Amino acid sequence: MNILVIGGCHTGNYGVQAHLSFARQWANHLEIATQEPVHLRCLSMVKLTHIDSLATQYQADLQAADLIIFQLGHYELSWRRPFLDLFDSRSESDRKITVYRAGTVPKPYQATEKLYKAAELPNRSRWQDMAKTTALRVYNRLYRDVPYLHTFRHQLTDAFDRLATFRDKIIVLTPFPTLNTLDQWLRSQCHAFIIDAAIQRSFTVADTFDAIPCQPTFFQADGVHLNSLGHMVLSLFLSELPCVMELRQESTVA
């Protein structure tokens, strides 16, 4: 069985050992359940603007995969830019600074035992994030939608349309919950849209908001990246998806 996992830094086991990543643990579960070898390939650090060129350059991998996991929107809904950019209605190409370069294809994930220690955020940053989140809530009530999120929805729709050819084997992971109040608000605003857009294209959806409790126990010190327990919970959640259970049953019958 061939599994292709495409997503953000969690796909690259950021902060945990390679064998503890959700992708590797999930692949191990499948090997035990199906009693057949699982070939896992991961592409990490993927942004929405990568999808078009990725679908072209990795077309053979996409076609050969039995299951394809997409964790899209992780970077776009992790806000590390000037706060006022959220209210800028111009597209990325109209701005003087291009944050994400379109057409850049991520390098394939390489398993590593190296750990990246996530630094704990100071209290000052937390208060600033809370204040920004409050400002966004007020803006959203007055004007209904933050301009940046409107742009994000268009980017996500374009990415999903590009992937529609592989709909029968795609599982879309919603962006993971986070303890960062600003990021969590952005993700909650797009949560229903991502699910609806995926279902409209006949993708299987795995709602990680249902899988990962938004509690410090499951996150690293920065409150953003999952720790080994968070990865384990996610891998178990993926193993119980209906489409995965069908594969296990088919294997048992065979």
Describe this structure in words.
- The chain is α/β, with parallel strands linked by helices and 254 residues long.
- It has one domain (2-253): Rossmann fold (3-Layer(aba) Sandwich).
- 44% of the residues lie in helices and 9% in strands.
- The protein is built from 9 helices and 5 strands.
- It has helices at residues 22-34, 51-57, 59-64, 123-143, 147-163, 181-200, 208-211, 228-239, 242-253, and strands spanning 2-6, 39-43, 67-71, 170-173, 204-206.
- Strands 2-1-3-4-5 form a 5-stranded parallel β-sheet, sandwiched between helices.
- Strand 1, helix 1 and strand 2 (39-43) form a beta-alpha-beta unit.
- Helix 1 (22-34) runs parallel beside helix 8 and helix 5 (147-163) runs parallel beside helix 6.
- It is globular.
- The two termini are 14 Å apart.
- Residues 93-103 have low confidence and may be disordered.
Brief rundown of the structure:
This protein has 254 residues and is α/β, with parallel strands linked by helices.
Which tags fit this structure?
single chain; 254 residues; Rossmann fold; five-stranded parallel β-sheet; globular
Radius of gyration: 18 Å
Q: pLDDT below 50 for ≥5 consecutive residues: which ranges? A: 93-103
The strand order across the widest sheet is 2-1-3-4-5
Taking the sheet with the most strands, its summary is: 5 strands, parallel
CATH topology: Rossmann fold
Q: Considering the protein shown, what is the CATH homologous superfamily?
A: SGNH hydrolase
Separation of termini? 14 Å
Under the CATH scheme, the architecture is: 3-Layer(aba) Sandwich
Q: How many distinct domains?
A: 1
Q: Tell me the number of strands.
A: 5
What would the principal axes of the Cα set say about the shape?
globular
| Contiguous helical run count | 9
Mean pLDDT: 86
Strand content: 5-15%
User: How much helicity do the residues have?
Assistant: 40-55%
